[in-house]
Amino acid sequence: MSISLDQTSIDKLSEDIIKKSLTTRWLGQHVIQYFDVVASTNTEARRLAREGAPEGTLIVADAQTKGRGRLGRSWVSPPGTGLYLSIILRPDCPADWLPKLTLTAGVAVASTIRQTGLTPQLKWPNDILIADRKVGGILTEAVFDRRRIDFAILGIGVNVNMERNELPISIRNLAGSLRLGLGEPLSRIHLIQTLLQQIEQWYESFQTGLFATILETWCEFDTTLGREVEVFLPEKRLVGVAEALGSDGTLLVRDRTDCLHSVVAGDVVYCHLKPSSDLK
Ligand code: BT5
What is the 33 CA–ligand 1 centroid distance (Å)? Predict the structure, then answer.
């Protein structure tokens, strides 16, 4: 993919520019809402979904003032350098498939980044890394109707062109960007184009029940399995080795007493990990 940004071109996003570059069949084809600044694209998407916006509705922002991560955490979203987008999905599936949607999106994001020449890694369940530094995250939220998903919001944030000094000190040691990994800036519009294509393709696999294929691809990018991990669960902390993924995408962790735990959702910290120092 030729996505490097010619130094003279302006990498400005707009509804028209995104629409013109779309190569998807349905994703983003009906409704696109673009904001120069918004509190959170996920919050906006949720509002639109409640009003009945169709599947494939796309919300994109150049900057967010209250970008959200999981569990009330925030997502740093400065203008001009990142991708912040949310997609409304209306999958016909049980509520407990929601974590699978996060893994599916991870595969789409990693496949997109791989096309730039970088080597993305996936950290269970929702982190996208390059050289062990977080460059992207996924926030999947949903409203349920009698144990089925009524609608889901797939929120994706990627640090595209941030320089090291543009990352806040609070995350500078853990975070990276595609530009820092590649050594040159990238066109956000080309990235969006590829990302939407990938999401459409992988979401269709999810819809048709091809989760085994999705998991196989997830494992090609995996950086979690085989590691000693600390998992923070709502009611306890688990230390052990991340042994495998269950067929439903849960993380199987073997603790020191040889007991195997199936983790559906939680925060994973790698033990003994320092980010690689080979980034510029
Ligand atoms: C995530 O949460 O990684 C999900 C991030 C999803 C962001 C997108 S942007 C579009 C859409 N609209 C939203 O409002 N959100 C979604 P979590 O696993 O909880 O990670 C959050 C943690 O990542 C923070 O506590 C920081 O440590 C770190 N972090 C925050 N901003 C970051 C950034 N820009 N780059 C790398 N790490 C960051």
Answer: 21
Which three-class secondary structure state does DSSP give residue 278? Answer: coil
Whole-number Å distance, alpha carbon 167 to ligand 1 midpoint, is 12
From the CA of 270, how far away is ligand 1's center (Å)? 18
Domain borders along the chain are 5-221, 227-279
Cα–Cα distance measured from residue 36 to residue 81, given in angstroms and rounded to the nearest whole number:
12
Against a cut of 0.70, is the pTM above it? yes
**What burial letters (b/e) apply to 85-99, b meaning 16+ CB within 10 Å?**
bbbbbebebeeebbb
Q: Is the beta carbon of 126 within 6 A of some atom in ligand 1?
A: yes
- Pocket of ligand 1 contains residue 69 by CB under 6 Å: yes
Q: Does domain 227-279 have CATH number 2.40.70.10?
A: no
Superfamily (CATH H level) for 5-221? Bira Bifunctional Protein; Domain 2 (3.30.930.10)
Q: Cβ(139) to ligand 1 under 6 A? A: yes
Predicted pLDDT at 271 = 86
* pLDDT averages per 10-residue partition of the chain, 280 residues: 56 92 94 96 98 97 97 95 98 95 98 98 97 97 95 98 93 96 95 97 96 97 96 91 96 96 91 50
